[in-house]
Amino acid sequence: MSIEINEKEQLFALHTPETSYVVGIADGLYAGHVYYGKRLRHASGAYLMRTGQHPFIPSALKREKGTFMSVFPFAYPTQGVGDYRTPALQVRNSRGMRGCELHYTGYRIDAGKPALEGLPATFAKEGEASTLTLFLADEVIGLEAELRFTCFEDLDAITRSVVLKNTSGEPLYLEKVLSFSMETDNAEHFELLSLSGTWARERNIIRSRLDRGIYSVGSVRGESSQQENPFTALVSPDCCEDRGIALGVHFVYSGNFIAEAEITENDMVRLNMGIHPGGFSWKLEPGASFTAPEVVSVYSCEGLGKMSRTFHDLYREHLIRSPWLKRERPILINNWEATYFNFNTEKLISIAREAKKCGIEMLVMDDGWFGRRDSDASSLGDWFVNEEKLPGGLKVLADRVNEIGLKFGIWMEPEMVSPDSELYRAHPDWAIRQPGRDPVQFREQYVLDITRREVRDYVYEQVSSILKSANIAYVKWDMNRYLADMGSLGLDADRQGEQMHRYTLAVYELQERMLAEFPDLLLENCSSGGARFDPGMLYYSPQIWCSDDMDVAERLFIQEGTALCYPLSCIGAHVGASPNHTTGRVAPFITRGHAALSGTFGYELDVTKLSEEEKALIPGQCADYHRFHHLAADGDYYRVASYRENREYDAWMSVSKDKREALVTFIQVLNRPNFRSYRIFLKGLDPEAVYRLEESGSDGGSLKLSGDRIPGDVLMYGGLLIPRLPGDLKSRLIYLVKE
Ligand code: GLA
User: Per residue in 548-601, pLDDT tens?
Assistant: First the structure.
């Protein structure tokens, strides 16, 4: 059991192998944050709450508690009673008054980790994790709060979530309910790292200096979003891959979120994360409970690399449930950028035949196969086959694809409806809208109000009947717009603020139902590329489409940011066409293949139009995927060099857990005049072993490595020399195996 209680000092310590998270009770009443950092031997350090330095403790002061309320590092800060920092909880009572003060009433410790009803969350069996629950209550308004903290036995990860219960006889209105909050001295002068972007440029790493005030990132778009990912890290200014402090927090949720870092008047830093309060309000009836989704936190004092590897292990072992997690995924070819909406059975069959010859294993039919969908202007919601394109329907096509020897998968966008669709003409009131106002369209579509049971059931039946109609092995579940014009005919006036959260819960329910009915289905979530790339989605799908941008140079930024907290095995990555459809940039086929190998791997181009030379490279790339997949999927990820930082080249590697094998990917983005070769320092190898190096499928001249034997310590401390290659966007894939 890794939870330790110090009764005398009223402290609770959650110990992981190398970290400790300590909370304490001050004055017998107030839950405070004490410490989060390197592992402590014992639950101690109550003085870090500074309750003894000044008569801040209300009982010692025997006067008023204002000063205390305004400076105490609350473990779950509230609003309205003297704390002026940004709160985690804001409550309005039925008289319209805002104010809440939570007092400690007790604790409980459980082996394992309780599930969060209706919500995705990390899971752990008894022996793998322990959970501390602190019970707090505000007797004045009649609110109970359960603060849950879980620590994992073999991983340096802590999770937090909150359950609120109305114990009064009147409704309460929750206006801000975050899941994570901690406040600590800013002696480290933390910076805030976030993953920011836009369409086709998701999850680029941004580091911002924190100064007095509140710095926040978030989404109010109804999905986790391309603009900001629900991940942030406090990092010390010296933090790099291998050194410095990185304290990452990640929200296991797919809707609106906020992460806030406030530097207070006393140079403390308060870090909050949870559901975005913008537009949010939740009516809590007497006796009812509200569960706030989970936040995962990871502390590393060995830089970002260690933090990344902990998140990767946690998600692979304790979040992704799919039976596909550890399996090799079929190498797919998706027809989106090959044909867009312009295809028919014969075109798809010609792609499938050619793909099969090259060693590809699954055909995915993207958007455009249903209703009268010849552009993005119509037919979402009309989930019946367009027989002009696909005579005989899905079964005929799927069977023919199967006969060729490929699996078959499809694209769907179940949450949406086009104004020009039979569904919308029949049920205009099913679209999210406000009476009297024309709802805003994005990509010429509306969002279905799946918070309503009848709409949700209808959507589910559509999905289920499509999946039953043919041999469909894979679904790409897309979501191509933000939510707006919030208003639901299914909710009373004082519940309209619940719609965004209920929408996210409805998506979870739909995917849960689908996976219960089709347990072996390979599900890939998607949202205009990677706008719903978050740990919540990983609970349902083992992979998520990372970005519509397959341009290698842009992908280096996107995949670096994504891999900061998401395992490579979940990053949807394909070899796209050249020139690239988004940037127009030209890149060698080999380099495109090497970049995609660090993800789920597949193709998104018209294989029938490739040159013979390019086509001839595919079987080797497919073989590389099968040969090296286990390294990317199960290994430890190390970032070796960053094009974002050096503007010249990028390199990363995956090392097997037993350090027997490793795979290094090196991409020379820009060839800059220099007679010297590159020198990269490998990581994570066994310093006492000798590795045999072998190069796979590179162009532009051999490294002359094949058969080379180099000791692990030399590769790590002396480095590996990589000659410059003529031209830009050239790459190397280097396999290392212990002698
Ligand atoms: C989104 C996805 C693309 C493709 C299109 C189809 O943009 O990200 O991969 O599926 O929709 O409309």
Answer: 999 999 999 999 999 999 999 999 999 999 999 999 999 999 999 999 999 999
- Please, is 293 exposed, middle or buried when counting C-beta atoms within 10 Å of its C-beta (0-12, 13-18, 19+)? buried
Q: Which domain holds residue 164?
A: 3-318
Q: Measured from the CB, is residue 367 less than 6 Å from ligand 1?
A: yes
Least confident residue range of 407-421, 487-501, 701-715: 701-715
Is the minimum distance from the CB of 337 to ligand 1 under 6 angstroms? no
Choose the catalytic residue: 548, 551, 606, 624.
548
pLDDT given for residue 702 in this prediction: 54
Rounded to whole angstroms, the Cα distance separating 57 from 51 reads 6
Provide the CATH number for the domain around residue 449: 3.20.20.70
CATH number, domain with residue 71: 2.70.98.60
Is 144 within a domain? yes
- Give tens-digit pLDDT for 102-129: 999 999 999 999 999 999 999 999 999 9
Mutate to test the pocket of ligand 1, among 339, 476, 528, 546 (most ligand atoms within 8 A of CB): 528
pTM beyond 0.90: yes
Q: What is the per-residue pLDDT for 703?
A: 61
665 and 650 within one domain: yes
For ligand 1, whether the C-beta of 548 sits within 6 Å is yes
Q: Please identify, by atom number, the ligand 1 atom nearest to the C-alpha of residue 376.
A: 12
Token pair belonging to 309: 């590897």
Domain end, chosen from 613, 634, 655, is at 634
Q: Within a domain: residue 325?
A: no
Report whether 24 contacts 9 (CB < 8 A). yes
Indicate whether residue 638 lines ligand 1 (CB < 6 A): no
**CB contact at 8 A, 455 and 499:** no
